[in-house]
Design a protein that fits this description.
The termini are far apart. The longest helix has 14 residues, at about 75-85. The mean pLDDT is about 95. The chain has two helices and 15 strands. About 25% of the residues are buried. The strands form four sheets. Strands 1-2-13-10-15-8-5 form a seven-stranded antiparallel beta sheet, covered by helices on one side. A four-stranded antiparallel beta sheet has the order 9-14-11-12, with no helix packed on it. With about 190 residues, it is mainly beta. Bound molecules: 2-oxoglutaric acid.
Length: about 190
Amino acid sequence: MERQLILEDGETRCWVIKAAFAHLDFEEWYESIPWQQNPIRMFGKEFLEPRLTAWMGPTYRYASIQWAAQPLSDTVKQLQEEIHRQVQPPEPLNACLFNLYRNGSDSMGWHRDNEPEIDSRCIVSVSLGASRDFLIRDRKTLEKWNIRLDHGDLLVMENLQTNYEHALPKRLRSDAPRLNMTFRRILSIPAN
Ligand SMILES: O=C(O)CCC(=O)C(=O)O
């Protein structure tokens, strides 16, 4: 399978395995995930996130959203094991955030997956459905990378969360849905 190196900078590496999971059926995955639309607070106001999401893994909080602990389903576990075989992360990935972009109006803004409980050495995502652009930018130089993610592509982000941020911008000409499963390792941090 074709591996594409997107960027390499010291310990940071980002690469894609094209079509690694092209055999997965979008409709089956879409139906099997308990989607919800979360409210988020930004600039003192409450909005609905411009996408649907779901969570499987240990309890986890980002922005104003608190996810309860939820075990990985059997099918998600199988996918996680296949990802471990292909990517060999330093420690097993134990959680998955699911994102559903119902059409090109749904999006995710610039952000980093840098909460203290995320092990940012290795975060891996699988994309199914419509092709969308995934952007990365260097926080200092603002240099940008535009990666076209197609159905079945596997994206690997190694140590990408300190100096770089990423986003999934709107693409208003696209009316087809895309789902993304982002596997990560959540560390248990002792409460103070
Ligand atoms: O949909 C994508 O490919 C981006 C997902 C993402 O950035 C995230 O879950 O942090």
